């Protein structure tokens, strides 16, 4: 496994452990709308290394391990880090946009960054087969990717669970766009998948405000 992926996992584990045991540290670096709008922009980055518990941390790091190696083998270290951190920040920015009228909204987790890495790997290999428990049936990566976008939109609209759906969406969009920039021939190779995802993302940009109506 790449030393870069190991380094990111170690960083997430150590920062998250510090947050588990130090409430003041956790509060100082988590994503919180009021604090970010007040000038503490660093929270948009640091919140991506904090997690609420071991299950949350473990799920994100396992996904990073599985999909990260696909991206780093295809692109190399520099572009992989670009995708990871650009997706992290894209998730934070989209969350800030969606929750800008909720001063006490807060969130943590590497989900935005990991979503970007997952989408990048799916775009590289849309026919990859994924098994998502509890459904023990393999599904193609492109089906998962489109379903992931639609479910995140539904979750953001209806506030399902204690999940930062807006960060997932923002991160996925970041991974999608950076991958297209780095590997533009994907459009010709996988036109239908790219087009469907582009339509969903365009819909978010034009009608994203309506997702906040049910809050």
Automatic annotation (TrEMBL):
Residues 39-183 form the Peptidase S54 rhomboid domain. GO terms for molecular function: peptidase activity. It is a multi-pass membrane protein. It is an enzyme of class 3 (hydrolase). The chain crosses the membrane at residues 6-26, 47-67, 79-97, 104-125, 131-151, 163-182, 188-207. Its main location: membrane. It comes from the Bacteria. Keywords: Hydrolase, Membrane, Protease, Transmembrane, Transmembrane helix. Its EC number is 3.4.21.105. GO terms for biological process: proteolysis. It is found in: Membrane. Belongs to the peptidase S54 family. This is Rhomboid family intramembrane serine protease. It comes from Tenacibaculum tangerinum.
